[in-house]
Design brief:
Layout (H helix, E strand, L loop, with lengths): L1 H20 L6 H14 L6 E6 L13 E9 L3 E11 L1 E6 L9 E3 L2 E4 L5 E8 L7 E10 L5 E10 L9 E3 L10 E5 L7 E6 L2 E6 L3 E4 L5 E11 L2 E11 L8 E5 L3 E2 L4 E9 L5 E8 L7 E9 L3 E7 L6 E8 L5 E10 L18 E4 L2 E4 L20 E3 L4 H4 L2 E5 L5 E6 L4 E3 L6 E9 L4 E9 L1
Parallel strand pairs: 18-24
Antiparallel strand pairs: 1-2, 2-7, 3-6, 3-8, 4-7, 5-6, 8-9, 10-11, 11-14, 12-13, 12-15, 15-16, 17-19, 19-22, 20-21, 20-23, 23-24, 25-26, 27-30, 28-29, 28-31, 31-32
């Protein structure tokens, strides 16, 4: 009996010591929780897909019609490959993993596929494209255990050979002027890592851009070339533009002087020339009606000066219409007009009615325009102000009588026209001089003409 009691005590003591020595061992539920937390906190290495092998290939050199080995590898922790697709373009697959490619692989067109759980495969390829445009394209689907298991895929493309042929070369302007930028563009081509742009064999841009700006600095025909290149070779395309020289500025004349005066005053008018070649001739003419400049006002001949001034009185009781005809050493001609109001003239309206009835032809620089349908009687209204700096103003009822307007220079050229929708016609942008304002109603065949002086 005592022996049994002693054995029982020893057993209880052993169990107590075992429990004390294993206090850090968790129960089943705690152990599972700790394992899940460890898995969730683990960060797997990012998988990567690589293709290695011969890529140094230029025209008439390997790998054209030659055989090379390429290794395709997917790397990453706890990766289980589920599918491997490899597409080979312009090449013949001879061996996969050192054996006949039909072993463990399916073949559809250029694509080879397998479900082997193998992260690495070798391909022996014979490149059969003499233009060197072979491509390997690998696609892998895999299962990565950590953290919680997921399907992922990786994609890798390798281009063997020089870039694909360039097909386009476009210019925004094929006939620019010197100093005028133009846009040059080509198509992005597969395999190109760099584009070199040249004009007459001189590089003006280099980089990945397929659209660039070129500013010609001299005139004449220019050969524009774009070269697409990589480490395997180059392809190019070229075209031509013709660069025009900067056009010379036209020979011009401007008159400055008083806008108004009176019979007793003395005034100065100055002509200024520009963009001409000496020597110059100044022929001044004046008119009482702004149409027929039949009177010589002043003349200065064979001078190197680009200005010519005259100080005179206004015609008594008449407004002064001036016309300057200047010629330069190249026999180019410049014409300018100017109007000065004589306040002692009573503010005669500048309308065409009743002026020079014997000839309705307006003359300018030996050119003629025939003005028809002009009433010799006074018109029922007059545009104002006249001379005008900005807006010609018509009476309200003009909108009911006329539908369109046009502003003509004395040589018959229409410089401004439109529908008559407002009593104001803005001619601020027109050059100073004498114009003919034409109001027209095609429905009633009604036409009115007015002389307008723009200042």
């Amino acid at each position: 009996m005592k022996t049994k009691i002693i054995l029982l005590c020893l057993l209880l003591l052993g169990l107590t010591n075992f429990a004390q020595n294993n206090t850090n061992v968790p129960n089943s539920e705690g152990n599972n929780r700790q394992t899940k937390e460890s898995l969730n906190n683990a960060q797997p290495a990012s998988p990567s897909l690589t293709i290695t092998g011969e890529t140094d290939c230029c025209y008439n050199q390997p790998p054209y019609n030659n055989t090379y080995d390429y290794t395709i590898h997917i790397s990453g922790s706890n990766v289980t490959v589920q599918k491997f697709d490899v597409t080979v373009t312009d090449g013949t697959v001879l061996l996969i993993d050192g054996v006949n490619p039909s072993t463990g692989w399916t073949h559809t067109g250029d694509k080879w596929s397998t479900n082997q759980n193998n992260p690495t495969h070798t391909f022996r390829i014979n490149w059969d494209d003499e233009n060197g445009m072979g491509k390997i394209h690998a696609y892998v689907e895999f299962y990565q255990v950590i953290p919680m298991g997921a399907h992922r895929n990786a994609d890798k493309h390798i281009f063997i050979g020089p870039p694909v042929e360039l097909t386009t070369l476009n210019f925004s302007n094929s006939h620019p002027y010197v100093g005028t930028p133009i846009t040059c563009s080509t198509n992005p081509t597969e395999g190109a890592q760099n584009y070199i742009w040249k004009a007459n064999n001189t590089t003006f841009h280099q980089g990945p851009e397929t659209t660039v700006t070129y500013t010609p600095t001299s005139s004449g025909q220019k050969s524009i070339m774009v070269i697409a290149e990589n480490e395997c070779g180059q392809v190019f395309k070229y075209g031509y533009i013709f660069v025009n020289p900067i056009p010379p500025s036209p020979f011009e004349a401007v008159i400055s002087g008083p806008s108004s005066g009176n019979n007793s005053g003395t005034y100065t008018w100055v002509a200024t020339l520009s963009n001409g070649e000496p020597n110059y001739n100044y022929h001044w003419y004046y008119s009482y009606d702004g149409v027929n400049y039949n009177y010589t006002w002043a003349t200065t001949l064979n001078t190197s000066s680009e200005t010519d001034s005259h100080t005179l009185n206004l015609p008594e009781n008449f407004d002064l219409y001036l016309k300057l005809v200047a010629t330069d050493g190249s026999n180019d001609q410049a014409i300018a007009f100017f109007f000065t109001r004589n306040t002692d003239a009573g503010g005669h309206p500048l309308n065409m009615q009743g002026t020079n009835d014997q000839d309705n032809t307006l003359l300018k620089d030996s050119k003629q325009i025939q003005v028809t349908d002009i009433n010799s009687s006074r018109t029922d209204f007059l545009p104002y102000p006249n001379p005008v700096c900005e807006n010609i103003i018509l009476p309200e009822d003009a909108l009911n009588k006329y539908k369109t307007f046009s502003l003509k220079s004395l040589d018959g050229k229409v410089v401004y026209e439109g529908k008559l929708t407002d009593i104001k016609i803005n001619i601020a942008s027109q050059s100073n001089g004498l114009y003919i304002l034409v109001l027209n109603n095609p429905e009633s065949n009604t036409v009115k003409y007015f002389k307008i002086v723009k200042q």
